[in-house]
Amino acid sequence: MKKIIIAIDGYSSCGKSSFAKAIAARLGYLFIDSGAMYRAVTLFARQQGLIENGRVKERELAARLNEIDLSFRYNPETRKSDIWLNGADVEKQIRSMEVSRDVSAVSAVGAVRDFLVARQQQMGRDKGVVMDGRDIGTVVFPDAELKLFMTAAPEVRAERRYKELQAQGAAVRFEDILNNIEERDRLDTERAVGPLRQAEDAVLLDNSDMTIPEQMEWVMKLIEERTRPDKPL
Ligand code: DC
Description:
With 233 residues, the chain is an alpha/beta fold. The chain is built from nine helices and ten strands. It has helices spanning 16-27, 34-47, 58-64, 97-107, 110-123, 136-140, 154-167, 174-190, 212-227; strands at residues 5-10, 30-33, 51-52, 55-56, 70-75, 80-85, 88-89, 129-133, 146-151, 203-206. It has a five-stranded parallel β-sheet. The two termini are 12 Å apart. The mean pLDDT is 94. 2'-deoxycytidine-5'-monophosphate binds next to α2, α4 and α8.
């Protein structure tokens, strides 16, 4: 079967990563969570004191991006791939509320976006990739063979995130999560560089009332269509 690029964009916490992961596993494709990359750069900025009260020291961060070494490595314990930042597995740390709070500001920095978009394009050069994020179908892979745009009601998304964090033993309040999601929706769509928007040729998926198996069945039909040998490359 012809290998393609599947770009999945959409609002935060609407299950993009779980869905992308499931598709990648089914097809034997590489899964790349681009949000994890923005989160890891945010963690780096926090560690280096480059964020003060939610404000990013943009020029200093831009000058130090070359100190950042990012990679995804398989974790045999969880059987998932974790993100590593400068020699350390930071998969857990990047999901904290502190990083979630600062990540929108960091991802609005043009130099950070240029740096990460270049890395992402390199990761997809051999195709056979499912990447999820905010600008994958519009900026990173504008020629992706299949683009999905995912959305779900904010309350549904907050509930999912709440359960996820609770399961990890984090003491969190539902209201805080809902506020964070709504604020990130606003910042993601309003930022000047790489804003979240549906690409013209993206297929919309509102999964408020859909299970993962239902979404899977839906997407597999699309994938079959797009990978048909008679379809020109
Ligand atoms: O998918 P996520 O919630 O883990 O993403 C974290 C943040 O990173 C999100 O607030 C927006 C930003 N992001 C981005 O700007 N561009 C991407 N391609 C992926 C994520």
